[in-house]
Description:
- This protein has 295 residues and is mainly alpha-helical.
- It has one domain: ABC transporter involved in vitamin B12 uptake, BtuC, CATH 1.10.3470.
- Helices cover 71% and strands 2% of the residues.
- It has twelve helices and two strands, in the order αααααββααααααα.
- The protein has helices at 2-5, 9-40, 47-65, 69-90, 100-122, 148-170, 172-182, 184-189, 194-216, 228-241, 246-266, 274-285, and strands at residues 138-140, 145-147.
- It has a two-stranded antiparallel sheet with strand order 1-2.
- Helix 2 (9-40) runs antiparallel to helix 9 and helix 3 (47-65) packs parallel to helix 5.
- The longest helix is centred in the first third of the chain and has 32 residues, at 9-40.
- It is globular.
Amino acid sequence: MFELLGVAPQVLFGQLLLGLINGSFYALLSLGLAVIFGMLNVINFAHGAQYMVGAFAAWMLMQWAGVGYWWALLLAPVLVGLFGVALEKTMLSRLYKLDHLYGLLLTFGIALMLEGAFRHQFGSSGMPYPIPDALKGGQNLGFMFLPNYRAWVVVASLVVCSGTWYAIERTQLGAYLRAATENPVLVQAFGINVPVMITATYGFGVALAGLAGVLAAPIYQVNPLMGSNLIIIVFAVVVIGGMGSILGAIVTGLGLGLLEGLTKVFYPEASNIVIFVVMAIVLLIKPAGLFGRER
């Protein structure tokens, strides 16, 4: 079969693995964007910068506090989430009744300031972050070699994405969150503090970006520009899946990562644009996205 395709199985499965890893990051980041847009109606263009801050938080915890990877995996998303809470309370909360463009411009400006500040402090060459000892090495599957850390990234992303989907779509808290976007006055009448819920939702969405940053740190160099290189692709994933759709963000992120990997095997020149070609086709056929609803 592989001979008919003219591709060595090691090359095909290797690129599919890379695509699945990229798709895991696309899913995790687009999930955070979908949560924020779906619950708060805010287009968070600072998401890529917050992903970068998560990676730097892990690196600084290691360098300055001697904190290992596993503690950083817990602490860095919390720190980034708290930063998001402060951002929502001081700035974003003033824009909810205004056009989407104001939130987009504000978060874009915040992203530029964060990237500029980190580039001024740390430069743009990037710093390595070691793979934890427990996840070094890999497994020989016969047709390919599977690094343990990359397998961990895929599993962790799937677990977090599935748990988030279940919490929002299948629990009472998720029902309150969805209701608060439609009728906050009614939800508040049930004794729910809607402003606190909105703030916590933004903090959680930002924490997902921070978590993705920690997972990415051992694979990619910790770099001030790592978020800006990814955020455009993640926005395309969100648009294809449907703005605000939790399931759409997860399925589309993973699927487009695999499609990108296959494109690198059979038509490498198109691998950088295939996601945007898919986005154009989807918008022509279904403007609300594959899993989106017409508003």
